[in-house]
Amino acid sequence: MARLLIIDDEESLCQVLEIAFRRAGHQVETVSNAEAARHKIDGRIYDVIVCDIRMPEATGIELLEYARSTRNPAAFVLITAVPTVSTAVDALNLGAYRYVVKTDRLIDELKLVVERAVEEQALREENTRLRSELLHAFSHQNIVGRSPKIERVLELVRNVAPAPSTVLILGESGVGKELVARAIHEASPRREKSFVSINCGAFPETLLESELFGYCRGAFTGADSNRKGIIEAAHGGTLLLDEIGETSLSMQVKLLRVLQERRVRPLGGTSDQPVDVRLIATTNRDLKKMVEAGQFREDFYYRVSVITVEVPPLRERREDIEPLARHFLQRFSSAIGRPLHDFDSETWARLMAYSWPGNVRQLEHAVEHAVAVSAPEDRVVRAVHLSAEVAASESPAGMGAEGVDFDREIAAAEKRYLTEALRAAGGVQTRAAELLHMSYRSFRHYAKKYEL
């Protein structure tokens, strides 16, 4: 069923068309002059407008221009008894959907045109809906937060997405760097193409090279067939190099060549393949310091950091703890059918007091843990549902009349930070010291003090 507006100064034709289209199940309105037509176009949204080209007060072309000026989305069909090539060309150039000549088969032709217009509109609406769902799944709309810092990140995502420039996303582990990368891709002109990611720190160099560039049969032992690398797989789309700070200097040279020449050669191959990819890189390391230390190539650094997006840690945007916690609670409770809908006041106090060294990922896991250990009849998350580490956090505002043991609380906080830094650094003490912005010597002193 379509909503039709028929405009023709021949009232008898309007009546015939109205009867024919109503019998076909459509909603039909008719007008016989330009003033009434403009009023209808202003006041309602139609699927199809059928308009005669030659009328006393205004031409169909003029009414078509008026409809387009008001952004009326209707498919505009022009009909005429005196066809001319120039008029048809003008109509189509102005956005007319069809140009139909009045003949004995006018009603049948118009029915077919209306049917096709409605089908095309339905397909466009479905495509728009699916696109909206996809964008919601992997766009800035799915980056939960209300703090000024995260709002600035979202604004930068919107601004840089249309450009083809390489983007470097900085931030600690667990802040959501890959989610930001996906948001940039989904808001970019490349969103119809692939988003391919690889963690550069998860592979030894030789395996990383074959994963990135692919290989030809016989390139090495076990290469019994040709295999396309992920750079080629991302052709036309976006390539995410996660933790790019873990790449070796020799790998950086090879990646720099790809970015400069837009060509890639598989291992064991003799010819280059053209590639068109937008590179987004992420890291939790200080690449500038790595450049100064000779651990990261300066030319490669400037090539990947054309645009830099820094995602702040959760402790610097504590306003986001509440919406994030609610978001995770809804997701996990729905997944297992628990009626949990909120956190009690004590739990909120502990969530807000905790430092979240693992950032958003740690908060997500903490909420998942709380939901999993809750009882089926529970309606709210209580402090007893939290992990021991998070449950131990206390808000200074709630110290009570007895006060607190200041030295003990400070020592507990120090130990917690050291432990979380070691966990985030995979047990590497030098990296843990960097995360805590302290010297390696100081870190060893505190690690020994707390027997870590």
Report the CATH superfamily of the largest domain: P-loop containing nucleotide triphosphate hydrolases
Kindly name the structural category. Answer: alpha/beta
Using the alpha-carbon principal axes, give the shape: elongated
CATH topology of the largest domain: Rossmann fold
Percent helix? 40-55%
So how many helices?
19
Question: In CATH's first tier, which class of the largest domain applies?
Answer: Alpha Beta
How large a portion of the residues is in β-strands, by DSSP E?
5-15%
Q: Can you lay out the helices and strands and say which pair or pack?
A:
Layout: E1 3-7, H1 11-23, E2 27-31, H2 34-43, E3 48-52, H3 60-69, E4 75-80, H4 85-93, E5 98-101, H5 106-137, H6 148-160, E6 167-170, H7 177-186, E7 195-199, H8 205-213, E8 214-215, E9 227-228, H9 230-233, E10 238-242, H10 249-261, E11 263-264, E12 273-274, E13 278-283, H11 287-292, H12 298-304, E14 307-310, H13 321-336, E15 342-343, H14 345-353, H15 359-373, E16 380-381, H16 388-391, H17 406-424, H18 429-435, H19 440-449
Parallel strand pairs: 1-2, 1-3, 3-4, 4-5, 6-13, 6-14, 7-10, 10-13, 15-16
Antiparallel strand pairs: 8-9, 11-12
Helix pairs in contact: 13-15, 17-18, 18-19
